[in-house]
């Protein structure tokens, strides 16, 4: 199966030039087309996301990405993309995620935040997991865990 990688413990995705890959952490192992490494960068956006109760790192990651792009418009981007095609855009998302939660990030949900282009996701050590100070099982806390999960996102938009 040339052009595919094992979906085991892969954190970094989309960085094998010109290949298509099985999407790591995907429940359906869908084939995802990956762009080459990002070229010219036109914008860098920063965001932070949290999950206060329930320890859902994907929810925190999605919120960080949405925070990063919430107040941005890049109308000039279509002038520099090949044929003005927004699907030729490359979005590189670098997420700082606490080590103990990194394997639980659903990369498909993170990619779904971005409506256009090829989305590359890179998970790095970072973020925080801290005590909320109160255990709330009715809000999703389980096993005595009252952790707040904080994820940081750097979103690079380019071609």
Structure summarized in a few sentences:
InterPro entries: CHP02058, Tubulin/FtsZ-like_C. This protein is α+β, with helices and mostly antiparallel strands and 159 residues long. The protein contains three helices and seven strands.
Write the layout of secondary structure elements.
Blueprint lengths: L19 E3 L8 E3 L7 E11 L5 H13 L7 H4 L9 E8 L9 H5 L6 E8 L2 E4 L15 E12 L1
GO molecular function: GTP binding
InterPro entries: CHP02058, Tubulin/FtsZ-like_C
Pfam families: Lin0512_fam
Can you tell me about this structure?
The structure is a single chain. This protein is an alpha+beta fold and 159 residues long. It has helices spanning 57-69, 77-80, 107-111; strands spanning 20-22, 31-33, 41-51, 90-97, 118-125, 128-131, 147-158. Strands 3, 4, 5, 6 and 7 form a 5-stranded mixed beta sheet that branches. A two-stranded antiparallel ribbon has the order 1-2. β4, α3 (107-111) and β5 (118-125) form a beta-alpha-beta unit. The radius of gyration is 17 Å and the shape is elongated.
């Amino acid at each position: 199966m040339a052009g595919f990688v094992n979906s085991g413990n892969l954190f970094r995705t989309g960085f094998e030039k010109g290949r298509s890959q099985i999407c790591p952490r995907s429940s359906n192992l869908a084939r995802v087309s990956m762009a080459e490494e990002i070229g010219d960068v036109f914008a860098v956006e920063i965001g932070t996301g949290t999950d206060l109760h329930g320890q859902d790192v994907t929810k925190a990651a999605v919120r960080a990405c949405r925070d990063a792009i919430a107040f941005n418009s890049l109308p000039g981007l279509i002038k520099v993309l090949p044929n003005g095609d927004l699907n030729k855009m490359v979005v590189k998302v670098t997420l700082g995620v606490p080590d103990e939660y990194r394997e639980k990030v659903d990369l498909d949900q993170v990619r779904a935040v971005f409506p256009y282009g090829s989305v590359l996701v890179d998970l790095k050590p970072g973020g925080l997991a801290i005590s909320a100070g109160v255990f709330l099982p009715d809000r999703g806390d389980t096993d005595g865990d009252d952790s707040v999960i904080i994820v940081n996102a750097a979103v690079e938009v380019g071609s």
